[in-house]
Design goal:
The complex is a heterodimer of chains A (420) and B (259). Chain A has 420 residues and is mainly α. Helix content of chain A is 64%, strand content 3%. The C terminus of chain A is likely disordered. Chain B has 259 residues and is mainly alpha-helical. The chains are: A mainly alpha (420), B mainly alpha (259). Chains A and B meet through helix 4, helix 5, helix 10 and helix 14 of A and helix 1 and helix 7 of B.
Chain lengths: 420, 259
């Protein structure tokens, strides 16, 4: 970090800061030089922080009224909806907040994919991000179980049963996860405990994610390293703060629309039927944000291989900094990658759609093709593209339209001095 | 841009094929002008009160309403019966209470704080009385069925004579809107089965609309305050967004960069 030495003006401030340099940290955060060409796709980091805090606050409030017991959970949720003051508001914010959280995280991830934000020197930021994403999925899945509706119960049954695919010890692991021989009260109470814990783990990882980000600084739409601070950067406050705030407000309008006017549209009707181990719903579908992975799981005929494929589909993302061999970060200067980027996005949307459909006939065929393409993109197309692709010339700096830059500042500097 | 168009084409195609494959199985639900839909959607008070009448005179002989209390009938945004009316309704039911000081259970008239009295003591009793089928609790029924209000509204009017090739067992009825077309509930409504005190004609369509409105309220008792608050919240957010937009423009005008 290239922070100038900061000294508080007041005596008290100086006394305190010498003992705990929290004012230095605050100064670093407000002065933090940020590329001035960041577009609105970069505002989702702030939006995600908002989502996490919203989920934690509404979640804490709900936990004060919720009863984690198989016989009482469904009723306690109805109690929250009916008799707790503004309980309906808190619950609808929490339930739709999960969807909004995932909407924002998918935009955030696909922004990284487009602008190559995962590449050196930002690999650790990216991997922490993938771990956060994994924890989010775990938290969301367990949270969906808590109302103890039909989809809660059967979703939990299907997902926990995946572990039975592990050879030899599978069945034992499943019984251990359940705390019994089926999804029941012990499963519910442990899911509640973990659902309460995970957000705080995420919060800790978010701090690391931002810390790791503040070492190299933000990537930017041009994808080149910039000098900091320079004419290419603006201080985080007020420039980025106000821009993030503006984007957050627009996001909140969408969020509010769901909460107040379509609070159940993203959920499944079956989850308003109390869990019944004797009746299986016609179609067991996870929440929309897990559908692409559900489609991958179901498109493999073998259970164990299906589970492995699903896990690998996520792990492969963590390996992305090494699978993508191109030195150029931003897709703006990678004409071929840009094409494949959009195909991948379409592919993931198709997978999501197939995940919601019954796994049969044409749906299954399309899901299988889309699954194959998903892995083809990461394992073949990306590595090969880095060597074969003819990239466009990259500018030297954000303000300077002069071409001949490189994503790596050291190389760019050498080139500059050489040309002089 | 070209790619975005490609993407949209692909998705439209998928959507289209899906519609074709579903067209054969699914039948379009009946629709009506629900007053509770839309930005300012509110319940029709008369319809809610008539709906309660249908529930108490027709549905409640088999269907429970376990998450509602009689006091809810007086609450704002609901049927808004007067307290006297709701007390009279509650008092018309017998509630088992106790144990008293002697350790005995006793029966007393219902109070506003009591939950709606259930028609059967337990699920097994309900099944035994209904040919093995359990009449579902109606509290959140609208939200528990895909299609929601339109589905219940259609189902109540969907009873028909079965096509020749379908043979129904005893106690099973044909309904064109339920999955598989077989339902164990006989058509509950027929013209004039209740007499509305406000003079509204009790046609099957009218009664279906009233009971569905009532069930929408039982499932979403705070729907009216939700809509009211939502309008205010979104309006507030839009105004704040506009203000912040101009502040942002002002701040970013200090430097040579677009925002």
């Amino acid at each position: 970090m290239s922070d100038h030495e900061y000294t508080p003006k007041s005596k008290v401030g100086k006394w305190f800061n010498d003992r705990l340099p929290i004012l230095t940290l605050a100064n670093h955060l407000t002065d933090y030089p940020t590329p001035k060409n960041l577009n609105y796709w970069w505002t989702f980091g702030g939006i995600l922080t908002f989502c996490l805090i919203t989920q934690i606050i509404t979640g804490l409030t709900l936990a004060m009224h919720y009863i984690a017991h198989a016989d009482m959970a469904f009723e306690s949720v109805e109690q929250i909806m009916r008799d707790v003051n503004y309980g309906w508001l808190i619950r609808y914010i929490h339930a739709n907040g999960a969807s909004m959280f995932f909407l924002a995280v998918y935009i955030h991830i696909f922004r990284s994919l487009f602008y190559g934000s995962y590449k050196s020197p930002r690999e650790i930021i990216w991997i922490i991000g993938i771990i956060i994403y994994l924890l989010m999925m775990a938290a969301a899945f367990m949270g969906y179980v808590l109302p103890w509706g039909q989809m809660s119960f059967w979703g939990a049954t299907v997902i926990t049963n995946l572990f039975s695919a592990i050879p030899l010890v599978g069945e034992g692991i499943v019984a251990w996860l359940w705390g019994g021989y089926s999804v029941d009260n012990p499963t519910l109470t442990r899911f509640f405990t973990l659902h309460y814990l995970i957000p705080f783990l995420i919060l800790g990882l978010v701090v690391l994610h931002i810390w790791a980000l503040h070492v190299p600084g933000n990537n930017n739409p041009v994808g080149i390293d910039i000098k900091k601070p320079s004419k290419d950067t603006v201080p985080f406050h007020p420039y980025i703060v106000i821009k993030d705030g503006f984007a957050l407000l627009m996001f909140m309008i969408v969020f509010a629309f769901f909460v107040f006017y379509a609070p159940n549209i993203l959920g499944h009707a079956d989850n308003y039927i109390e869990a019944n181990p004797m009746v299986t719903p016609a179609h067991i579908v996870p929440e929309w944000y897990l559908l692409p992975f559900y489609a991958i799981l179901r498109s493999i005929p073998d259970k164990l291989l299906g589970v492995l494929a699903m896990l690998f589909a996520i792990i492969i993302l963590a390996l992305l900094p090494w699978l993508d061999t191109s030195k150029i970060r931003s897709a703006v200067f990678r004409p071929l990658y840009k094409q494949f980027y959009w195909i991948l996005l379409a592919d993931v949307l198709i997978l999501g759609y197939m995940g919601a459909m019954p796994a049969e006939g044409l749906y299954l065929l399309i899901a299988r093709i889309a699954t194959s393409y998903y892995f083809l993109h990461f394992l073949v197309i990306l590595p090969v593209l880095g060597f074969k692709e003819k990239t466009l010339p990259v500018p030297l700096s954000i303000t300077d339209p002069v071409l001949g830059g490189s994503p790596n500042l050291a190389i760019a500097k050498n080139k500059e001095s050489f040309e002089k | 841009m070209k790619n975005v168009i490609k993407l949209i084409t692909i998705l439209t195609l998928i959507n289209f094929t899906n519609h074709i494959s579903n067209a054969a199985e699914k039948i379009e639900l009946l629709k009506t002008d629900w007053t509770f839909k839309g930005l300012f959607g509110k319940f029709d008070r008369g319809s809610l009160q008539r709906g309660y009448q249908i529930y108490s005179e027709v549905c409640s002989s088999c269907h429970s309403m376990k998450y509602l209390s009689y006091r809810n009938l007086t609450e704002k945004g609901g049927p808004e019966f007067t307290e006297e009316q709701a007390k009279a309704i509650a008092a018309s039911f017998e509630v088992k209470d106790g144990p008293n000081a002697d350790g005995e259970m006793f029966v007393r008239p219902g109070k506003l704080s009591d939950k709606f009295v259930k028609p059967y003591d337990n699920v097994k009793a309900a099944q035994a009385a209904n040919g093995g089928a359990y009449p579902p609790d109606m509290s959140v029924l609208i939200k528990a069925r895909s299609g929601g209000a339109n589905y219940i509204y259609s189902l109540l009017q969907g009873y028909e004579d079965p096509p020749a090739e379908i043979i129904l067992d005893e106690g099973v009825y044909y309904n064109k809107y339920i999955d598989g077309n077989k339902i164990k509930m006989a058509s509950p409504l027929s013209d004039g089965i209740v007499t509305y005190s406000d003079g509204t004609e009790a046609t099957v369509a009218q009664m279906s609309k009233d009971i569905t409105t009532f069930l929408m309220w039982t499932a979403e008792p705070h729907l009216e305050s939700r809509h009211k608050m939502g309008f205010k919240a979104i309006l507030y957010l839009i105004i704040l967004t506009i203000l912040v937009y101009f502040s942002m423009k002002k701040i970013w005008s200090r430097i040579e960069s677009k925002v």
